[in-house]
């Protein structure tokens, strides 16, 4: 059995200029026999507006470790669902397989682990006539890979958080808090 019980990671990769394709996945990774596995199994039912689906690279190509994705934004139309279950899902699937290739995720534990990833897909994407699907792929691929890497390496560490306490602040605090 794996000793990976509960690891978390987040990442933000910003869109190219003029795009609304920012990606901000949050990932939890753990043993199928532990709390992550229980949460994973509990997600098999659907919640209106927050579809849950396995991450697949294409038809009949579910990734390992088994990964469930769900959106942070309520799905209101098929255009949104198609972007989420199309370009975004494919980007995440490719990132997960590349994490196996690059030993970010342990290959020998791929069937003993599972992941849950919450996905940010800006609702404006479906209305953007100039949506760059390549940038949507890029941001979701890079952010997924980075979030998984951070989860597996425990980043940021407690020491990093303490060291940057007065130099890093949430973007929403601009003009509100001075350090």
UniProtKB/TrEMBL annotation:
Residues 15-171 form the Formaldehyde-activating enzyme domain. One of its GO terms (molecular function) is carbon-nitrogen lyase activity. One of its GO terms (biological process) is carbohydrate biosynthetic process. Keywords: Lyase. It holds the Pfam family Fae. InterPro entries: HCHO-activating_enzyme, HCHO-activating_enzyme_sf, Ribosomal_Su5_D2-typ_SF. It comes from the Bacteria. This is Formaldehyde-activating enzyme.
